[in-house]
Design brief:
mainly beta; four-stranded antiparallel β-sheet; 8 strands
Length: 102
């Protein structure tokens, strides 16, 4: 994904598949802030800084959400703080933690 200083991407987590793994890669030389928000409730699950040319992996059960995340629509927002965003993400959801541990 490439774009301006703020780039939102949306996806849906189906009920019963609340265990999630996200791999986010930043291809720009500037850091970006990535946040994940549940659109229906406005709940922000995380806000993380990815350094320039870096990546992070986020798993719900490693961050206080051991029971899984609620179903519904989500926005993964990338903010370059004035710099253009250049990155990509991959995600996987499951009904079982064991399916998203690796």
């Amino acid at each position: 994904m490439t774009g301006g200083a703020v780039v939102p991407k949306t996806f849906t987590i189906n009920e019963g598949y609340g265990h999630i793994k996200l791999l986010m890669k930043n291809y720009s030389s500037s850091s970006v802030t990535v946040s994940l928000t549940h659109k229906n409730s406005g709940w922000v699950y995380f806000s993380e800084v990815i350094p320039g040319d870096g990546s992070i992996t986020w798993k719900n059960f490693q961050h206080v959400y051991e029971q899984g995340m609620r179903g519904g629509d989500y926005t993964l927002q990338w903010s370059g703080g004035g710099s253009n965003v250049n990155g990509e993400f991959f995600g996987k959801t499951s009904s079982s933690i064991s399916d998203v541990t690796n």
